[in-house]
Amino acid sequence: MKKLGLLPKLVIGIALGIVIGALSSNVGTDIPVRLLATYNGIFSQFLNFVIPLIIVGFIVPGIADLGTGAGKTLASTAGIAYLSTVCAGSLAFITATILFPGLLAGGDGLLANVFDNPEHTTLPGYFVVEMPAIMGVMSALILAFVLGLGIAVTKSEGLKKIFDEFQSIISKVIASIIIPLLPIHVMGIFCNLTYAGTVVMIMSTFAKVFAVVIVLHCVMIVLQYVLAGALGKKNPFVCIKNMLPAYATAIGTQSSAATIPVTNAQTKLNGVSAEIADFVVPLCATIHLSGSTITLTCCSMAIMMLSGMPTGFGTIFPFILMLGVTMVAAPGVPGGAVMAALGLLESMLGFNEVQLSLMIALYLAQDSFGTACNVTGDGAIAIIVDSLFGKKQKA
User: Fold this and answer.
1) Alpha helices in the chain, H assignment, sequence order
2) Contact residues for 98 (Cβ-Cβ < 8 A; gap 6+)
3) How far apart are CA 24 and CA 283, in angstroms?
4) Among the CATH numbers 1.10.3860, 3.30.420, 1.20.1070, 3.30.2310, which is that of 6-390?
C-alpha cells in the first residue's frame, strides 16, 4: 500500500466505503458504519484543531518571503500571479453559475440534510474526542497577516526562521499524518453516505463537475498563453506544446515544487531569459495556483448548490480573492492548496465538518490536473515578466 499514490488509495477507500456501507445496509447491522464514524469524528476534531495552525504556518512565511526579492520584478510577478489566480476563480464562478444549475438539476437542496444535519441522516460514532482549536479561523488569518507583513517590513530574520521551521512542522503533520490517514476518513464518509442512500447521487453529480473542471483548466492555460504570446511575440500553441513535459510531470508528482526543474527547463525552451526563468518559476510554484482555484471554486459551489446554500457573486468572489492570499506558499505535498483553504471554506462559506471532509476528498481526486494547470501557467507568467523586464535586466 505504501507504494501506491494518494489517488489510488482514495479510489480504494471510496470503493471499500461503498461496499461496507452497502453490505451493512443489506445485513441490517450498523456496527462497521459506526466504527468508521467514530474514527471520522476523531479525525475531524484533529483537523479542526490543525486548521488555525495550517493558516499561520503557511501564510506567515509566504507573506514574509514576498517582502524580499528583486524589487519591481518581484512585485510585478506576484501581482500577475495573483491576478491570474483571481481570473481563474472568476472564470470558474461564471461557468459554474451558468452550467451547474442544469448539471445538478433535481439535486438542489436534496443533500442539505446530509450536510447541514449529518446526525439526522448518517450514523454518529460511538464517542467523540473533543479537540478545541487554540484560536478561531478568522483570528488565525488576522494573526498570520500581521506577523507576515511585520516580518517583511522589519526584516526580522530570527522570527522568520522560527516560522519557517514551524511551517516545516505543519507540512510534516500534513504529509505524515493527515494525508496518509485521509483515505480511511474518505472510506468512512462514503460508507456512511452509502448506508444513508445518497452516495449514488454524489458520485454521478461530481463526475460531471470534474469534467467541467478539467475543461476549465485547459481553457485557462490557452488564455494565459494567448496573452503571454501577444506580449512576448511568441506562438502561444508552440509555447503550450513546449510546456507539455512540465504538465505531465506535475500530473505524476502532484507537486508544483517537485516540478520546478522541468518547468524551469521548458520555460527557457520558450525563449525566456535564464535570469527571469530562475526567478519567476520557483516563486510562482508557491504563489500561482490558477488550476487549484478553479477546482476549489467549482467543487465548493457544487456542494453549496446541493446543500441549498446561496452561491451569489457577493458570497463567492470575496472567497476567490482570499484564496489567492491564503494559498500562498502551500507546501509541496499533495492537497496543500485545499488544506490552506479549509479555514476560508469554514469561515467565509460556512462549511461544516462533513462538507470540509467531502471537499478534501473531491479536491484530492483531481489534484494532479490542478497542479498541472498551475505549473503550466507558471511558464506563461515567466514569458510575460520576461517581456516586461528581461531586456532591462540584460542591459
Assistant:
1) 6-27, 31-65, 72-103, 112-116, 118-121, 137-154, 157-173, 179-196, 199-232, 236-242, 244-253, 260-269, 274-287, 290-306, 313-326, 336-347, 353-365, 367-385, 391-394
2) none
3) 50
4) 1.10.3860
Q: Which position has the grid cell 500500500? A: 1
Strand, helix or coil at 259? coil
The closest of 61, 56, 62, 53 to 324, measured between CA atoms, is: 62
Whole-number Å distance between alpha carbons of 52 and 47: 9
143 contacts: CB under 8 Å, gap ≥ 6: 56, 135
The length of the chain, given as a count of residues:
395
What predicted TM-score, i.e. pTM, was given to this entire model? 0.77
According to DSSP, residue 309 is labeled -
pLDDT digits (tens, 9 = 90+) for 107-150: 555 555 554 444 445 677 788 788 888 887 778 878 888 888 88
- Cα separation of 69 and 287, whole Å? 14
Measured in degrees and rounded to the nearest 5, phi and psi for residue 67 equal -80, -10
Q: Which residues contact 314 (CB under 8 A, 6 or more apart)?
A: none
> Domain residues of the chain, as ranges?
6-390
